[in-house]
Amino acid sequence: MNHAELLGWLREEDPVRLEELWRRADRVRRVQVGDEVHLRGLVELSNHCRRQCTYCGVRAGQRGLLRYRMTADEVLACAARARALGCGTLVLQSGEDEGLEAAWVADLVRRLKSESGLTVTLSLGEREERELRLWRAAGAERYLLRFETSNRRLYDAVHPSLPGRPSDRLADLRRLRELGFEVGSGVMVGLPGQGWDDLADDLELFRSLDLDMIGVGPFVPHAETPLGRAPRPAGPQQVPATVTLACQVVALARLLCPRANIPATTALDALASRRGWELGLTRGANVVMPNLTPLGYRALYEIYPGKELLREAEGCGEPGPRERVLALGRTVGAGPGGSRAFVERPGRALAPSQGEEPCPLCL
Ligand code: SAH
């Protein structure tokens, strides 16, 4: 699919044509990655952050926000719940928190690996190569770092660099791959200032990076942030932050990157009033990320409004993740659920990380 065709699908509004797109993406999903839906338990490890991203509710300097950092024991308790829920993977996400010391994180990863046996995904922002290397050696298998938008000017405006340290997430993604991580990235849909060409470029970048995991969610304005306070730009070039457009990007990502793992994101679920997983999973996605952060902390990890109200793992009378997956006629994936893009990549780093059993595929 070329740029013009991508633009055509992105701008499509005809419901009949959109049904065709959903059907195609769902078919490719079924053929390439099957009916299993992998559950990734999400733990929001810390809301401390040194960055000033204009979209994010936990950005540095956010007034009146109580900051927290979970203890290792609290994370291990979440890991036990993840296992009980049928998750094969634990995702540790945080603000870009220097207080999360590299050695402490490495130790946590080692404990998680030995005590829970879960696959560990990190999403801790832009960190030094030596830190990433340490975490990989401790046994962390995956890293998520969204490039947010491929429009460099827009990226610089919404994600200011730290003084003297230009942010270059594409270089970070390359480094993560060299270190042997399974690499995920993604974008927000509907950022103020984001145009149609930008979205088509984002999709082409997913393809050229040959990503293992692709996370796409609608931008959800947070009233206490610069982007949440600013008037939304109007005009024919501005893309809307809608559920449907986010689904179009998910569906096209599936067509361009058929073997990637693609979540139906929490932001999609929040904006679609808890129907977002179902929409995503039937339009190309094959992963969901139930939030296992203890409720008291979850309310403080408000990167956008509404997400802390999603209590999909709480057993509070609402259908849980497993029920929601089964209700779609799909199955819950067992085991680590690594992406085919990664597992089948020729010449991928073969050395197992320290402390890990050698992978039978690598012998
Ligand atoms: N500090 C880490 C994790 C950030 S939170 C990092 O920067 O990588 C994970 C993702 O949430 C971000 O990458 C961003 O794409 C998304 N996000 C942040 N604020 C958002 C908002 N207001 N609306 C929708 N998604 C948002």
What does this entry look like structurally?
This protein is of the alpha/beta class and 363 residues long. Helices cover 39% and strands 12% of the residues. It contains 15 helices and eight strands. It has helices at residues 3-11, 15-33, 72-85, 102-116, 129-138, 152-158, 169-178, 196-209, 226-229, 243-256, 266-271, 276-281, 295-298, 321-327, 340-343; strands at residues 36-46, 89-94, 119-123, 142-144, 182-189, 213-218, 287-288, 331-332. Strands 1, 2, 3, 4, 5, 6, 7 and 8 form an eight-stranded parallel beta sheet that branches. α4 links the parallel β2 (89-94) and β3 (119-123). The two termini are 37 Å apart. Mean pLDDT is 93; it is low at 350-363.
Order of helices and strands: HHEHEHEHEHHEHEHHHHEHHEH
Question: What bound compounds does this protein have?
Answer: S-adenosyl-L-homocysteine
Q: Helix/strand-derived class?
A: alpha/beta
Number of strands: 8
- Give the terminus-to-terminus CA distance: 37 Å
Largest sheet: 8 strands, parallel
- Given the C-alpha coordinates, what overall shape results? globular
Radius of gyration: 19 Å
Roughly how much helix do the residues carry, as a percent range? 25-40%
Please, what is the average pLDDT? 93
User: Number of helical runs?
Assistant: 15
Beta percentage is 5-15%
| Unreliable residue stretches | 350-363
Task: Kindly summarize this structure in a few lines.
The protein has helices at 3-11, 15-33, 72-85, 102-116, 129-138, 152-158, 169-178, 196-209, 226-229, 243-256, 266-271, 276-281, 295-298, 321-327, 340-343; strands at 36-46, 89-94, 119-123, 142-144, 182-189, 213-218, 287-288, 331-332. It is α/β, with parallel strands linked by helices.
